[in-house]
Design a protein that fits this description.
This protein is an alpha/beta fold. It has 13 helices and five strands. The chain folds into three domains: about 180 residues, no CATH class; about 70 residues; about 80 residues, no CATH class. A hairpin with a 5-residue loop joins strand 2 and strand 3.
Amino acid sequence: MTIQMPHDEFFRHTFSRHDIAGNYLQEYLPRPLIAVLRIEEMTLEEGTFVDEEMKKHHADLLYRVPLTDGDEVFAYFLFEHKAQPDRLIGFQLLRYMGQIWESRIRNKDEPRPIIPLVIYHGEKKWHGMNTFQEGLTVPDVFRPYVPDFSYILRDFSYRSDESIRGEIWLRVCLAVIRAATSPHLRDELFDLVGLLKQLRNYKTGLEFMRAIMYYVSKATDRIDWKDLETALVDQGVDGDEIMTIAQELQKVGFERGFAEGRAEGHKIGRYEGREEGREEGREEGREEGREEGREEGREEGREEGRRMLIKTLLGKHNVVTVSELLEIPVAEVQAIWDEIV
């Protein structure tokens, strides 16, 4: 997943999945609306209605949702990630909804009702507005002549007490969205990794974990690989799986921790391979030297990454516990411990 604006891309990556968006509607729409929607048959529409200048604050998705009577409506998701509540959110919704209706009119289609849904996760708690007119100063005598509509806003900022519920995929998404802006993210990693562990047995679980970890790494500078590594160990993830996750995260840009050891190993290996090849003076010698050097560098990099993991764990656990967690000999852990002390 290529991330230029991590909040937007993560929202679109997750809520474009019908199971996640549909589960959100089932959990957070009012019961009377759910009763008339055929959520399982909804379809994602192409495009975005967010103005270019607002894309750094908003991302959106539009779903067409059939009704039980054969008609249809639209569910419009707006992801709001400004640092603090925006009293003009109603204006922005009205503009985006107007573009949706205009598009249908141009295509000779009848405008249909739109359910506006706002997912907010700023750094401050939402102030409570959920109607268009609440963003205006309108004397009562003029209210009948000013447009008004309600929008369904859910506040998933870290200060909010909004409950996170639904199936595992949705709960993970919302927990990550909330955690991304939390100043206590490092302390909350244990619980977050506990949720992520539940995805391992699903078909696309590992891919989803990579997207989540990359999003968190790009959306905040409050954690690094060592923080994540500690949370994985504390949640009982075995050493081989930790190494696998580290390798997968490196593929999408989370190049911390083990990456330093491996990069240095590759560099040394390439250098030694070239030097040995030049000395032999033959093409075969150069090729063999490079290959041997690369392999030696990779091995040194892996070994350095392993040593870094052991040292990190020894900062929190004793020698025997680290040996059991990583399933390696006590003597090996003890030797590294002796180096430290």
